[in-house]
């Protein structure tokens, strides 16, 4: 049996994050549950006997505190699963001044990963991003308009954020793979969950219904690739820097997702915004 890993999962109070936490816990790993809701996060952690932390990604100070707490508590983190995210409604700015979808889906996990980098490098860690096939359907990255001041729609903002997850994965691999860090992004498929409940999209009214459960994957099924990436061996079981759908590198992709120069520039711009 492979040695147990310390696995930090954000967005683990519900949906595929909670499902992945349960499966990884059953496999003997030390799971750290991160969520926004104090009650739901504590409930999942209590069920597993796991550590938990609460952080609201619409507040970057919460992310900085989370990073500091994790650094102090865990000298090794073998897996960081950046799973938290969401599809939201009208365009709103956070207290930090960024469009909410962009901050929660990209900028906050970028910040958490950067602040944990010393621990991740020392642990030769795997960093996983929960992306989406929506990246190729509605994603359009414009570096001088990351807040979508000129072209906002809920789905455009979400698709672009999921594209940013893929580009972040590509650049994280380029910068840190030689130091032992591996990275992958994946699309969990259509999942019947509470996803989209804060938006005015059809998902608000469909994803959690009985009809959705007939046609969409369960959260446990949606968590399958996250569990596979977290427990697998980079370079043997999967390729670092890649974006996966159905357990294989995606055959179709947004052309921007293949642009290494764009990935580099997004990383630099993200650092500038957080400086």
TrEMBL record:
Pfam family, one: adh_short
Keyword tags: Oxidoreductase
GO molecular function, a single term: oxidoreductase activity
The protein, known as: SDR family NAD(P)-dependent oxidoreductase
Organism name: Amycolatopsis pithecellobii
């Amino acid at each position: 049996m492979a040695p147990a890993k310390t696995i930090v999962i954000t967005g683990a109070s519900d949906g595929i994050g909670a499902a992945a936490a349960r499966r990884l816990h059953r496999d003997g790993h030390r799971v750290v549950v991160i969520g926004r809701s104090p009650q739901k996060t504590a409930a999942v952690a209590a069920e597993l006997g796991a550590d938990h932390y609460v952080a609201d990604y619409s507040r970057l100070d919460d992310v900085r505190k989370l990073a500091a707490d994790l650094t102090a508590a865990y000298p090794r983190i073998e897996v960081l699963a950046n799973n938290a995210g969401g599809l939201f409604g009208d365009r709103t700015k956070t207290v930090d001044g960024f469009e909410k979808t962009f901050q929660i889906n990209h900028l906050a996990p970028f910040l958490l990963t950067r602040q944990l980098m010393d621990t991740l490098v020392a642990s030769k860690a795997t960093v996983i991003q929960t992306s989406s096939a929506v990246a190729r359907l509605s994603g359009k990255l414009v570096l001088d308009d990351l807040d979508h001041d000129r072209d906002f729609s809920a789905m455009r903002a979400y698709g672009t954020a999921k594209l940013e997850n893929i580009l972040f994965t590509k650049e994280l691999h380029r910068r840190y793979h030689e130091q032992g860090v591996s990275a992958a992004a994946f699309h969990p498929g259509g999942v019947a969950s509470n996803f989209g409940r804060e938006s005015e999209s059809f998902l608000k009214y469909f994803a959690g219904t009985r009809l959705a459960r007939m046609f969409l994957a369960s959260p446990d099924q949606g968590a399958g690739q996250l569990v596979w990436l977290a427990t697998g061996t980079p370079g043997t079981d999967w390729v670092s820097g890649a974006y996966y759908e159905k357990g294989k590198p995606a055959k179709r992709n947004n052309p921007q997702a293949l642009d290494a120069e764009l990935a580099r520039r997004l990383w630099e711009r993200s650092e500038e915004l957080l400086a």
